[in-house]
Design goal:
Chain lengths: 115, 109
Amino acid sequence: EAGVAQSPRYKIIEKRQSVAFWCNPISGHATLYWYQQILGQGPKLLIQFQNNGVVDDSQLPKDRFSAERLKGVDSTLKIQPAKLEDSAVYLCASSLDWFFNSPLHFGNGTRLTVT
Amino acid sequence: KQEVTQIPAALSVPEGENLVLNCSFTDSAIYNLQWFRQDPGKGLTSLLLIQSSQREQTSGRLNASLDKSSGRSTLYIAASQPGDSATYLCEGSASKIIFGSGTRLSIRP
């Protein structure tokens, strides 16, 4: 099966600019996650979708981050305006369901550098 | 608040050794625990998923155990190989999905 696809792989922007990341989950996976992974740390959940509804966005900095999953398939994560501390790898993952009994499948991530 | 801790942060062993990676979590109401491998510049690859009703899972040279009462999980790697070098992360699913910071494993040829 095709894996989780993410683009772009790398992005360099200046602070206060905006950026968007795209994710296409594995076909048939109802649950989609966006994680932020800062160097040397484990991934931190930003937002979790079940189909096109938000299940958990408690750790999403909503003043600058937004995410959507139209039609319950692809998803985009946007940062506007970016700050230096947003430099990280942004990982998208999907799973068959959200009852925590199916494994997470991750994309290769987008490495964001904010200068 | 659920916390997931992994010890040690880094480990270097010679090829062929058996080794154990540790993961501890604070919320005993965990649904499942998953071990991942992350290679540099890559996403995470699921290795083993232990559901709350299970005690352990095995895949090839890997064995993961889960003890909810003590809040611990271990990943056992038998006969380590240089290709096992990577960062290993554990993830606990309770009310939230929380990752540990990982153990960076280096297998010396």
